[in-house]
Structure formats: structure tokens, C-alpha cells
Amino acid sequence: MVASEAPLYTDLRPPVVRFAPSPTGYLHIGGARTALFNYLFARHHGGTFLLRIEDTDRARSTKAAIDAILDSLAWLDLAPDRPVLFQSERASRHADVARALLDAGRAYRCYATPEELEAMREKARAEGRPPHYDRRWRDRTDWPEGQPYAVRLKAPLAGEITVDDRVQGPVTVKASELDDFILLRSDGTPTYMLAVVVDDHDMGVTHVIRGDDHLSNTHRQLALIRALGWPEPVYAHVPMIHGPDGAKLSKRHGAVGVETWRDEKGILPEALENYLLRLGWGHGDAELLTRAEAIALFDLDGIGRSPARFDLAKLESVNAHYMRQADDGRLTTLVSPRIAAGLGRDLSARERDLLLRSMPELKARARDLNALASSAGYLFLSRPISMDAGAAKLLDAQGRLLLGKVAESFAALPAWERPGLEAAAKAVAEGSGVGLGKVAAPIRAALTGTTVSPSVFGILEVLGREESLARIADARQTEEG
Q1: SS3 for 246?
Q2: Which of 90, 158, 253, 354 has the fewest Cβ atoms within 10 angstroms?
Q3: Cα–Cα distance between 218 and 163 in angstroms, integer?
Q4: What are φ and ψ of residue 392, in 5° steps?
Q5: What one-character DSSP code corresponds to residue 151?
Q6: CA gyration radius for the chain?
Q7: Set 248, 251, 363, 438: catalytic member
Q8: Residue 138 near residue 107 (C-beta atoms within 8 A)
Q9: Sign (positive/negative) of CA torsion 443, 446, 447, 452?
Q10: pLDDT tens digits, residue range 318-329?
Q11: How far apart are CA 147 and CA 255, in angstroms?
């Protein structure tokens, strides 16, 4: 057995899981779901959730990507239980393990040149074989002095390697299908395959929950783990997310970074979490779950074997639910910058208060923060407000006549409150021999300049007597002039 290093976190207890993204880009929704599944599994079993940044690819790993990943995880409230581990800081430990395998005779020096390796691959392809290394240096000791060499694992030559996967079931590969993969490159740097195995072991990881695109690596990693004589983690490979058409998820389906869903799409974190939870995992008829409920219910046996299909309309529906449930003050804080960006200025304290008071009406119809900002636009219009084509059409002779009647009735009200406003409008409608909608429509046009908005009577109440009557007067005069 190759010597084992004491775990980095000696106070950890099983189960221990990790999320290990590569910082070569944003955190996409597939990665976010993997992080969520790991987090919920750890919490369900009273275990530990860790985060490892696999930044060994120095050419492609960027600080901006690292910051974006950490920011996205923080927004989703998926904080690790220990400090973040950066794989690049552990290169010496990785190299030590490879050299220990070399000393134990379970790895070997390979002096094959890049040209020789390419010739091997071309020959294998021509013969219809997998382009594996031909093991020409596996049993040799006539090493050329002073020449650089890679360190390769002595993978098993016979038998089978089975992954008893908690999602996919047993997956078996013949040892003959594995190659003697590189552990240390000729420049002394460790490969991904070596670094992952060493770090999982040293972090005390007991369960590896990741996308099934990693399944092909797992048999090779098991060969390395067994060569080291280390405990094997439990594996659970989660099917990938596909688009609604069944094709691999792409940007046209919504495969964008988590920060895009937050900043550009206006999705709430709890909505994205709930949607991702149900994207490939299920528990009976449960649909909308709180974090506490998800922790209580989540386990690996609820993950399906088939790829989940991303459905934007479903995500928007889930988000609309959480918008209605959200605290009014929180929504005001979240949507104010979007409104301010549209206005080209910050909102005043009075305007923020107006927005807060209107929130119960606004959020009832909004599917996301962008829609919420758009629907709140009427609050901040300067008089006389502009009318779109639909609103202008409503302010015809009959519409202006009804506006005059309702304005007179509103002005006589002792209190500017919704029940009284609604009763006054109904009285005007009955007296004019029309339905309430015929009265409400020109009022909406006068107040908002559009034909779509929250409840007219909610708008009247929020805008107040002075502003409401002034907008109605402006609309009548503008159209008559």
C-alpha cells in the first residue's frame, strides 16, 4: 500500500461530498445542479459539503471564472463547510503519490516521444483499435540517462473493473479496455486523473456525486485507487440535462451561466434551486419544496437514470410562484436597480416607498424581475404620459366621456381607498349602461399609457388622489386637443 497522507480536515465524518468545478468558464446550470445535489445529500445525512476548485489547467483557468463560480454558489446559498481547496496548490502532494507508486512498482517511467505517441495512435486507428498507448516502456529498465520521462500507471491487464453506481447501477469494463494513463507529465506536472484521486482521498470524500459525463473516467480512477490501496468512494453519476427537444443542452436551450439567470433573466435563487432540484430528481408528487423540505427528502435513490429536459416555461412558472411568495421589501430592493437603469437615474426615497406600497399588486402578475420592473414603470412616468397605440385607441369619445364621469365621482370620495374607488367605478358603469371593464379600460390607459397593468383600483390607491386625477385630466385634455 502506498503511504497515505492524513486527511486535510481531520474532524470530518461520513458522508463527505465535494463539488469540484473547473474554472475555465461560468457555472452553468448543470454544474449548479450537481452542487445542489451534493449539498442536499450531505445535509440529509448529517454530512459535510466541500468545494474544490480544479484549477490545474493554468492556461484556461482564470480568476474571473473562479470569482464567478464562488459568487454564483453564494447566490444559491450553497456554502461549503470548510475553506475552498484549490487543486493547483497541491501539485507537490500529487507528485509525491506518483513517485511512491513508481517506487512500489505500480507505475513506470515512459520515455515515449510525442512523435512516437502520435504514430501509435495512427496505427491503432488504422487497425480499428482504441488509440491507447502500447505499453512499450511498462517492463523496461534500460532508461536513457538524463532524458525526461512521464510516469504511467500499471493498469491491470486482465479481469474487470465494476463501478457499483448508485444511480446507473453496476457498470463493468474489461481491464483490457483501460490504458496505462499518465500520472505525471514529463515536465513533472500531475494530470487531472491523478489529482482528482489524491484530493478526494485527502479530503476524506466518501461519496462522489457528479455528471455521468465523468463515468468513463471512473474505471480508470478506480484502477489508480486500487493500486494505491486506498478506500473506494461511493459513486453516483447523474444523467446530463438535455434541451426540450432531447438534444444536448446548448445556449439556445438556456445553457448559460447562473449569473445570467440572476442578472439578465431576473430569476430568484430559490426558484432556480427548486427547478434544478426537480430536474432529474423526484419524490412522489412533490413539486415546490422549501430548502428544509428538500433536505428532509433528498437521497440518491430519487435520481432518475434518463437525461432531464430543461423547460424554460416551467422555470418561469416556478419563478412566478416564488415571486408571489417573496417579501415585498426584498423585491423592492432587487428590482429598484433595474428600474433605475431604465430611467437613467436612481429612485428617490419617495419613489422607493411608492414601489414598496405597489408591490403586492405588481408581484402577483410578474414572472421574473424584468417583468416586475416593466410593470412598475407606470409609477415613475412624467406627466403628461405617453400613450401606446392600444391605450390611445381606448381614449376615444366614449372613453373620454367615461373618464369625465369617473373623475367626478372619484373626486367626491371622502377617502381614497380601493373599496370606495371600485364602488364608484361600478356606479358609473351601471349609470352608463356598460360593464365595469368598459370603465376600467380607459382609466388604465390614462394612468399607465398601456392596456396591460395590475388592477386599476390598486394603481389608483398607490398613485394617490392627486396624481391619479391629474393623469386622468391629462388624458382627457390631450385626446380632446
Answers
A1: coil
A2: 158
A3: 7
A4: -60, -35
A5: E
A6: 32
A7: 251
A8: no
A9: positive
A10: 999 999 999 999
A11: 46
